């Protein structure tokens, strides 16, 4: 802190206190313990078993491999410890009148002379050719459709060497796993309930007071207390920006059921009249959840609906959840940074919760403070955090806006709502000539946007000028070769169930 002139702010031990032991708390603890030398940094984590965690957050996206590599985690061990399965993408059902589509993790076809593959596919499609579905040119999508899985493809002379995938994992076991990783590296766990924080004259947090009277002093506090945001909001009053007018689903009921006969290698997101529901298969059970807008459906109606839709035997009590889609423009204020649900949340449609946590951790490590808490570090952190979540927001809004569903007031609202200009611009550009452009290192790439725009029925008027160099006949011949090659290779892969059995 600026006024702390008693000790050299860069050499005396730096005490970090994490409040909360959900996925955010233990991911942060694990990453800091892995990076910060114990002789200079003390890390404590306060959590309360009585309060518990949100206990959802089971579908990940491929960025999780970066986090695992960073922690040097053996993924085979992680899969066993968290009852995980493999995820090649998300299947969307009922998001338009068109039925189903896949948003797979991975590229489509092969680019030609610098022209993106989808532009070639679109050119042939606009010329009236029978080009088939875009997913037929995507290895992950084809594998998911047949419930196949293999991380590596050892096929001579074939340019694709691996499939892009993520995991479905048990959120509670994941936090336990990271706790077992972090504690031997020096993280001190304090079981207890937070009551209030003590502040100094400048409004910086000095210590946490627990309900039994214990004090936990620190130099830097990381608020991982979930939706309660006990430090960043209740103590430091950082405001929250509400995006529910663009993302009206603000509630969910989650329940676990016994396994299905076949374990899918993808997440299911199935639309209903007032939102959607997820199906996330683990090795030993399925996570189910009905996401809905509380403006259009009550808790009781949601539970009844979910119970009627899940065919397998239910094995847990329902978990009712409420949130406000949005973000905190200042997730870092003074000597406190919020990570996880306390910093903001975009509903779980594209499984971005854990990804936002890991990128917040990496950003924090790059801009790590000393006791001076340099404001330009804090401002930079906040600027990038805002840009990241805003681009995810736009991507998720697209699924609701770009629909022809008209069977309920919920879908009519979504179809007709105004959307952010940043999203309007992206939609307009694609609509004109199929162009997609990834800005400022945003999380979702052109391929992700393409999957959803195409899947939700957008068809550009024309294509990129560079497609003029290829005739439709040339394109059709390439498409046929790619499609038959890909499908032959996918046919030869083991099923997801077989692959899981091989892992033992
Ligand atoms: C319906 C839903 C579905 C989701 N699905 C996905 C998904 O598929 N994929 C994905 O990546 N993300 C998903 N998420 C997001 C994901 O669950 C969260 O990002 C992740 O679990 C992190 O939560 P957290 O650690 O911030 O909060 P929590 O899990 O709520 O943890 C808060 C911690 O603070 C502690 N705490 C609270 N009050 C006190 C107190 N007074 N004293 C001491 N400790 C206290 C609690 O005990 C707990 O340890 C989903 C979220 C929701 C709501």
From TrEMBL:
Active site (UniProt): 87
Domain of life: Bacteria
UniProtKB keywords: FAD, Flavoprotein, Nucleotide-binding
SUPFAM superfamilies named among the record's database cross-references: FAD/NAD(P)-binding domain
Pfam families assigned to the protein according to its UniProt record, in alphabetical order: Trp_halogenase
Residues involved in FAD binding: 21-24, 341, 350
Chain residues that bind 7-chloro-L-tryptophan: 87
InterPro entries in alphabetical order: FAD/NAD-bd_sf, Flavin-dep_Halogenase_NPB, Flavin_halogenase, Trp_halogen
Nucleotide-binding among keywords: yes
Molecular function via GO: monooxygenase activity; nucleotide binding
UniProt keyword Nucleotide-binding, yes or no: yes
PANTHER family (alphabetical): FAD-BINDING PROTEIN, FLAVIN-DEPENDENT TRYPTOPHAN HALOGENASE
Name this polypeptide is given: Tryptophan 7-halogenase
Species the sequence originates in: Thalassotalea mangrovi
């Amino acid at each position: 802190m600026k006024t702390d002139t008693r000790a050299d702010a860069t050499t005396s031990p730096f005490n970090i206190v994490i409040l909360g032991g959900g996925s955010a708390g233990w991911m942060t603890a694990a990453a800091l313990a892995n990076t910060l030398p114990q002789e200079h940094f003390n890390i404590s984590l306060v959590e309360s078993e009585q309060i518990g965690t949100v206990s959802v957050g089971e579908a990940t996206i491929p960025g999780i491999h970066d986090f695992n590599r960073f922690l040097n985690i053996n993924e085979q061990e992680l899969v066993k410890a968290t009852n995980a399965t493999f995820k090649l993408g998300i299947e969307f059902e009922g998001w338009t009148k068109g039925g189903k589509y896949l948003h797979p993790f991975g590229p489509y076809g092969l680019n030609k002379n610098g022209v993106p593959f989808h532009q070639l596919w679109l050119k042939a499609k606009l010329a009236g050719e029978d080009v088939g579905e875009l997913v037929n040119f995507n290895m992950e999508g084809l594998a998911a459709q047949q419930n196949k899985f293999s991380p590596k493809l050892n096929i001579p002379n074939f340019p694709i060497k691996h499939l892009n995938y993520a995991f479905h994992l048990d959120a509670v076991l994941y936090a336990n796993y990271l706790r077992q990783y972090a504690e031997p590296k020096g993280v001190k766990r304090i079981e207890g309930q937070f009551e209030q924080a003590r502040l100094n004259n400048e409004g910086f947090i000095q210590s946490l007071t627990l309900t039994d009277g214990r004090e936990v002093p620190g130099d830097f506090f990381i608020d991982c207390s979930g939706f309660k945001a006990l430090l960043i909001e209740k103590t430091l009053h950082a405001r929250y920006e509400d995006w529910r007018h663009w993302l009206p689903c603000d509630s969910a009921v989650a329940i676990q059921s016994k396994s299905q006969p076949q374990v899918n290698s993808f997440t299911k997101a199935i639309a209903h009249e007032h939102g959607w529901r997820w199906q996330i298969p683990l090795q030993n059970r399925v996570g189910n959840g009905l996401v809905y807008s509380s403006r259009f459906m009550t808790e009781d109606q949601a539970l009844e609906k979910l119970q009627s839709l899940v065919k397998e035997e239910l094995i847990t009590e329902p978990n009712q959840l409420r949130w406000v889609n949005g973000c905190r423009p200042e997730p870092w204020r003074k000597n406190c940074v919020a990570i996880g649900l306390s910093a903001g949340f975009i509903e779980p449609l594209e499984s971005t919760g854990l990804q936002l946590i890991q990128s917040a951790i990496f950003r924090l490590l790059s801009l790590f403070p000393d006791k001076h808490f340099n404001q330009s570090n804090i401002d930079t952190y906040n600027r990038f955090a805002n840009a990241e979540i805003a681009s995810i927001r736009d991507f998720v809004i697209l699924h609701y806006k770009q629909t022809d569903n008209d069977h309920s007031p919920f879908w009519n609202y979504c179809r007709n709502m105004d959307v952010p200009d940043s999203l309007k611009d992206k939609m307009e550009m694609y609509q004109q000539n199929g162009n997609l452009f990834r800005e400022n290192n945003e999380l979702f790439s052109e391929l992700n946007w393409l999957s959803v725009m195409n899947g939700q029925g957008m068809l550009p008027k024309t294509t990129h000028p560079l497609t003029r160099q290829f005739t439709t006949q040339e394109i059709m011949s390439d498409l046929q070769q790619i499609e038959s090659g890909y499908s032959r290779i996918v046919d030869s892969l083991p099923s997801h169930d077989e692959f899981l059995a091989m892992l033992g």
